[in-house]
Amino acid sequence: MQLAQMNIAKAKYSLESPELKEFVDNLDPVNQTAEKSPGFIWRLQDDSGDATNIQAFSDPNIIVNMSTWSSIDALKNFMFRTHHRDFLRRKSQWFESLPQDSYVLWWVEDNCTPTIEEGIERLNYLRDNADSPYAFSFKSNFSAAEANNYHLI
User: Which of 13, 82, 136, 153 ranks highest by number of CB atoms within 10 Å?
Assistant: First the structure.
């Protein structure tokens, strides 16, 4: 099984604005770091090489990111032990604080590419039901085995 993740962020400014220039200018280097990280499998991208132009929500300022990883630890290592960490620390400079969960984790079969629709459904499930093996956050870290044994009622 592979770990899928989706996260969303609501930009305070247009992606073309000077306020977001540093963030946008670092998308390629951060994405390249992800792709070279141990355990990286796949990431959502359009023809430009990132996902910022993919409109998954009615609000055009909400951007989406999705990827799959070999394990929770592989994703955490990328997020918190690479250059990506520096951008997480500055998130509030570029993005609004959302009142609900802004990311979700779930397990998918090997060689399965999750869809945006699936990610949104899992995020909404997490928001409505809290952490479960079906949709969870880093607070719970459900294993793939737990996900396989979990059945929605």
Answer: 136
